[in-house]
Amino acid sequence: MDPSNNSTNLTAPTPPPGFSTRLKFNPSVQLKPLEVYICAIELMSLIANIPWIYNLPLTMEMTGSDASTEALLHPFPPFSDSRLQVRYAVTGLLDVGVAIAQKSQFYQLDAALFVGDDEVGWLEFRPKPKRDGISNGSVRRLGSGAAVNDSVTVTVTGDGGKITDEDDRNFVLTFSYDGVRIKAQDIFTVLLDAFAIAAEHNNTDADASIPAARSASGDMVLSTWTVGEAGDAEMTWARLKRALIVIWELLIVGQKGQKPRFEGLMFGLEYKGMAIGAGRMLRFAEDGDGDAGSAFER
Fold this sequence. Notes:
Structural class: alpha+beta
Low-confidence stretches: 1-6, 133-137, 140-146, 287-298
Distance between the termini: 32 Å
Order of helices and strands: EHEEHEEEEEEHEEHEE
Strand content: 25-35%
Largest sheet: 7 strands, antiparallel
Strand order of the largest sheet: 7-8-9-12-13-11-10
């Protein structure tokens, strides 16, 4: 299978010349939908913070919130001979995520990443083996919430509130839900699209904004923009990428013990007490109430 972003409404960067993704699902091995979404977004957020044309030398592993599912990204060949650039990994993961979400293919998956006739890496989504770790030389990162839940303070009042980053208390995200339910696959693919757009940019670059990331269905958009003055308090791509993963982990998936909340929302970003940016996630379509029901509860 060779999916193409041209068949969707995504606005992510054009796939690199000659790049293709070849997917092989195993329907006999089912995976939990929310765990698949968590693994994909968390892995994408990690890759998006690495320079765009950097060669990834090591396997990356991401585990879901209940440790039942894992996603692995392997370079081929590994180590110093790796040809798996970040741009290939981002495009491949976006292709995989869209293919999974559009047809609800929550199965074990092997996806080979090719440039021309050369395989440069592969992605796996599979049940997590009952063992500690993977092969030597791998890069490990814990699953949902490991990077965010333990390093933020969340204050909620009704349908809004603010999040303070304990790793950098100058960084604050304010938010309010709009109460409009959105399909889980739309939120998932719009955030994949947003991360893919952000991944092209160096973390230290300023004036970070995403005019319109879209879901694969076209029913939802995520937009961000800059506000305020330049200087120390400015919207860098690192801060925007941080905001995206905070929104995913805390406002959508939710903290431990909470149910996922698939709704539209508005958010603002502050640094050193000054507004530096804002954004929104909105649903366009008027039909249906989304699918944020029991299938995605913990």
